[in-house]
Structure formats: structure tokens, C-alpha cells
Design a protein that fits this description.
This protein has a domain of 36 residues. Helix content is 0%, strand content 8%. The protein contains no helices and two strands. The protein has a two-stranded antiparallel sheet with strand order 1-2. The chain starts with 47 loop residues before the first strand and ends in a 33-residue tail after the last strand.
């Protein structure tokens, strides 16, 4: 579900200085979550998961864990019509390997 700020009848400038909307390919959906470090020991790639959202009451979505990253950098994004381009992140090698 995507929240659009542009509605029928909204005024849009014809100068391409800043985008009005961003179109996002949703053929594959990935969800990133932040989990306390102590609880990540129970999570492994390939494990099945169930996801719920507060705004979609009663709906449960299934999926599987693709990877577990050892650390994520937090950041801020300024609101605009442009889609966020994430940096490529790779998991750190395990010290036990």
C-alpha cells in the first residue's frame, strides 16, 4: 500500500526541477526490521516469518528471512517525491567462520 500525495486536480508545475511522484517496482518486496542484538541469535536465513502491520488489522503476511545483517547505519531522509536509493550493504563475515 502506497500513500500518494498527488490527487486528481492537483496542480503540477511543468518544469522538471523536482519530481512530483516516484514509481516503485513492487514485484519483489523486502522488509527490513531492527531487532535487538540479544534476539538475533534466534534468526537464521531461510527461516519462515509472519509479518503484521498495525494499519492492516487481522492480516498476516508470510515470508522468509533472506539475510541477517550484523549492523545497520541509521539515517535520515528529507521528504521529497524521489525514491530513496539504498546503499549496497553486505553482512560482515562471521568471526567463527
Amino acid at each position: 500500500m502506497t500513500n500518494l500525495a498527488l490527487r486528481k486536480g492537483a496542480r503540477v508545475a511543468n518544469l522538471p526541477l523536482s519530481p512530483v511522484m516516484a514509481f516503485i517496482d513492487t514485484s519483489e518486496t523486502f522488509i527490513g526490521v531492527e531487532i535487538r542484538q540479544i534476539d538475533t541469535r534466534y534468526i537464521t536465513p531461510g527461516q519462515s516469518v509472519e509479518v503484521t502491520f498495525k494499519f492492516l488489522l487481522g492480516r498476516i503476511y508470510g515470508g522468509k528471512v533472506v539475510s541477517v545483517l550484523q549492523a545497520l547505519s541509521a539515517g535520515q531522509v528529507q521528504a521529497s517525491g524521489a525514491a530513496v536509493t539504498p546503499r549496497v550493504r553486505r553482512p560482515r563475515p562471521s568471526p567463527c567462520a
